[in-house]
Structures are given as structure tokens and as C-alpha cells.
Amino acid sequence: MNDPGPSSWNDLGNLYREKVMLLTVGNVNDFVLLTIHLSGKLVMFRSAHKKWTIIPDMPSPYDDVILYKGNFYAVDNTGRTVLVGLDLSVSLVAKPVFGGDKKFLVESRDELLLVDMYLSIESNSDSTGLFEEYFENLSCYMNERTVRFKVFRLDEASQKWVGIKNLGDQVLFLGDDCTFSASAKDMHVSRGNCIIFVDNFFYLNEEEYGSLGNHGIGVFDLENDSIGPLVKYPPCSDLFWPPPQWISSMTLEV
């Protein structure tokens, strides 16, 4: 029923995409990994079996996985969310919520949240290169830009994602390989209710936005639906100055 994945750790780089969830079962030597196969399907590794196994369920390609309250959850690009059992079973947790272009799962204050990211293709209007150069260096002139977010909380009883407008004190952090939330008070930030995210569009604006503008970090303020580079949101940018090593060492991959 299932397609076996590669049995060697050396093949891992060709198997997974972006994020891997780890669950220990019994002891630290017995563990389970869940990630997303390049095909968009879920794939699981059990240390006891020493092999990857693709889970065939995939009405739509999966966008994100998370470990929440000791269980694996996954969301596809329609918002359909499932609980993934260690026996490779998949059970519906929430019905689709259509609209955005990429979906993230985040745990915040013991609740499971869905963050729907909306993207748009932007061009650099200041570019003056020749027509041929434009297409030759397309990635330098065109970029997929985040334009807004919608946030939902899981209502397990009704199996629905319910839209929310206010995160309260919470700040959400979104990246392809990690998502988490934190209290603005604990971080000594003046207020929460915002999303800090990675967006390569802001690499193109270093001259305008200064030293923090080239790190590809944006902020979405849920209070007024505004979006922009980190440097335009002083309460948040203070968290990244001086830049921690994981930011200062970042390089743009094209």
C-alpha cells in the first residue's frame, strides 16, 4: 500500500523539503520523523524500521507539518488539516479554508493556529537593464512578495478553522523550516499582534531600508493590516539588533 522511501540517511537530502518534525517514543533511541516529500506527500521515518515510508494520502500537496500536543499534524494547500498517526493513518482535523497561497501551522498559547499567506509577483521598477539582461537575471528583478496574512484558530469540535483578528500579546514567527510564537512581554517588546516572517523581496531594498533591509525579514501588523520590512517596525526590529548569528549569516539563494 505504501511506497518505501530510501533506507539510507545519505538519501535524506533528496527526500525532504524544508521542515522535519521529531517525536520520541519510549526512549531517545526510538523516534519518528515526519516531513513533506518533494512530491507534496507526507513521509515518515521510524527508527525501529530504519526506512522512510511515503503516506499516499494527498488530495492536494501538503504545505506544512507540526508537532502539537504530542501528535503530528499536517496542512495541505487548501487548508485541509489532518492528524497523522504513527501507523501512517491520516484523520481529518479541519476542513479546507481556501484563499491564500501558502499555509503555516503554529502553536500559540496552547492553541493550534493556521496562518494563510497571500503572495504577489512584484517587479523592481527601478531596474533599467536591457531586455535581454532582464530575462537573464529575472530573479534579480522579479520576486514573489508577501502582501498579507489571515489567521485562524482550530475548532476541533466543528472541524473548522475560525478566523481571528487579534493575537493579543503574541508575536508569530514564520519560516520555511520553523514556526513558533512568543509573548511580546517576555521579549520586552511594546506590543504583540504581529507576524514576523521571511520574505526575499526585502533583500532588494537595502539602499532604502538600511542595514536591516537586506535580511529578507518582514512584519505584518494585524491591528491595521500593514506590511513592510523589519526596519519600519522599531518595536520588532529591536529584537534583531545587533543581528543574531542566524540572521547575519544568511545568504540569499536564487
Automatic annotation (TrEMBL):
Pfam families xrefs: Beta-prop_KIB1-4
Entries under InterPro entries matching the protein: KIB1-4_b-propeller, SCF_F-box_domain
Start and end residues of each KIB1-4 beta-propeller domain: 17-221
Protein name: KIB1-4 beta-propeller domain-containing protein
